[in-house]
Amino acid sequence: MTNRLVLQAITRTFQDGGNERMILDKLDLEVAEGELVAVMGPSGSGKSTFLSIAGALLEPTSGQVLIDGEAIQGKDMQELSELRLQKIGFIFQSANLIPYLKVEEQLILISKLAGTEKARAGQRAKTLLDQMGLSHRRNAYPEKLSGGERQRVAIARAFMNDPAVLFADEPTASLDASRGLDVVRMIAKQVKDQRKSAVMVTHDDRVLPLCDRVLWLENGKLITK
């Protein structure tokens, strides 16, 4: 089975009042295609740092990140930007939709940035909105959507460029229990159906049964309890 996300001996330190503080300590992680891994940990444990490094937003002090077999280290800013656009999908606590774009336009914009042909992008958007149960909302603006609908649009947008790896950062934090479960259920289904590797940082115990593995970030390492 292919591991579409691999982190090898990731270390991240920073200076704190003249002292070097260790945030991640030779952290290792492999996530197979079709697998959704939940990462938990208290505030200050390094979850945001971990997610930023894994998502090519922050450079580790040492170690290697591979996305779909491709090493991140050594790439310049433009190359990293292209990699994020083509290979990585992000879902955040807030849907972060553009207020003046309709639902379908939110998705089409992502494909346009990647240089995808217009007709192909339109078909991809239609397919994803169908899968998310949002076909009837394709011409709605974000202000007209419920919180759950906005997060479903965010999921569809994250999958728009067919990324290898998906990262979700507290995707249920702004939703009630029922909507939160629905959102994670949809993420898990898309990950399995499309054979992605996915990592979700969460504090929501209710969604853990929907994940394939649950890891805790403690003392700079990911462990199983």
UniProtKB/TrEMBL annotation:
Q: Out of the domains of life, which is the source? A: Bacteria
- Gene3D superfamilies in UniProt: P-loop containing nucleotide triphosphate hydrolases
Q: Name one Pfam family in it.
A: ABC_tran
Keywords linked to the UniProt accession: ATP-binding, Cell membrane, Membrane, Nucleotide-binding, Transport
State the organism's lineage.
Answer: Bacteria, Bacillati, Bacillota, Bacilli, Bacillales
What does the sequence similarity comment in the record state about its family? Belongs to the ABC transporter superfamily. HrtA family.
Q: Where in the cell is it found?
A: Cell membrane
Q: What does this protein do?
A: Part of the ABC transporter complex hrt involved in hemin import. Responsible for energy coupling to the transport system.
One Gene Ontology molecular-function label: ATP binding
Question: PROSITE patterns recorded for this chain?
Answer: ABC_TRANSPORTER_1, ABC_TRANSPORTER_2
- Segments forming domain ABC transporter: 5-223
Q: How does it sit in the membrane?
A: Peripheral membrane protein
Describe, as the record does, how this protein assembles with itself and its partners: The complex is composed of two ATP-binding proteins (HrtA), two transmembrane proteins (HrtB) and a solute-binding protein.
Identify the species of origin.
Paenibacillus chondroitinus
The question of whether Hydrolase is a record keyword is answered with no
- The identity of this protein, by name, is Putative hemin import ATP-binding protein HrtA
